[in-house]
Amino acid sequence: xxxxxxxxxxxxxxELELVNFSSxxxxxxxxxxxxxxxxxxxVATLNLDHIVKLRRNPEFSAAYRAHTHVxxxxxxxxxxxxxxxxxxVRLAPGSELIAPLVxxxxxxxxxxxxxxxxxxxxxxxxxxxxxxxxxxEVVACLAPAFGFDPTGASADDLxxxxxxxxxxxxxxALGAPKQxxxxxRGQARHAHIGFVSIGAGLDFIAGxxxxxxxxxxxxxxxxxxxxxTSPRRLARRYLDCALILPGxxxxxxxxxxxxxxxxx
Length: 264
Description:
The structure is a single chain. The chain is of the alpha/beta class. The chain is built from 13 helices and six strands. Strands 2-1-6-5-3-4 form a six-stranded parallel beta sheet, with helices on both faces. The longest helix has 25 residues, at 231-255. It is globular, with a radius of gyration of 18 Å. It has one domain. The chain has helices at residues 5-9, 24-36, 48-56, 58-66, 75-83, 94-107, 119-132, 153-165, 178-189, 201-206, 214-218, 222-229, 231-255, and strands at residues 41-46, 69-72, 112-116, 138-142, 169-173, 194-197.
């Protein structure tokens, strides 16, 4: 059965319109309410690579459109949103959402789970997070086997383990599109749990990967830093991203309000 359902099959929003929370602050406020009311949620962080994948992978597109919370992860998404007249959109990278979300969980005594990456990374990340956020309860650390299928029976087993452990937030570090597909599946299966897709975020926390220095990020050049550190893996990805930029810019301009009603 498709994770879409009839409602989602009618979702015709453009990719940029998927961003429905304009900033980290707005997102954290909404997640706080979800935790207080025991509602589940799913958080995705839109970037150009995701848009490339959305156009190529119907399952990924379906999962993304099932997410309850989407923020802009990547300066191009912010710039394009501004071009479309959405001046309120701010940068909210997935790796930078972990600390404030974990702090929120610790403050509300909401247990968390970590899923993805490798067992050593999960253990190191869990220890680091608990040191940085006293009172945080990490109830599950699950590293799927190589070749993990987020749509198969093993995915349901992992999701059930997370629920049985009592987690209220599960951080998914599987990379796109697997983590977003699993998040949508988890949201449908366990409606009281929040799922947050964070890519390599746990590797950064565990010290197994090094993120670009702050000054590089402030110059909006983190993509170049990443490509230079892993050219064979990322060169094609960034080329594909560059190729869709002109069309996205044209679509953003076409969507721009003509009556001066764009938000400041």
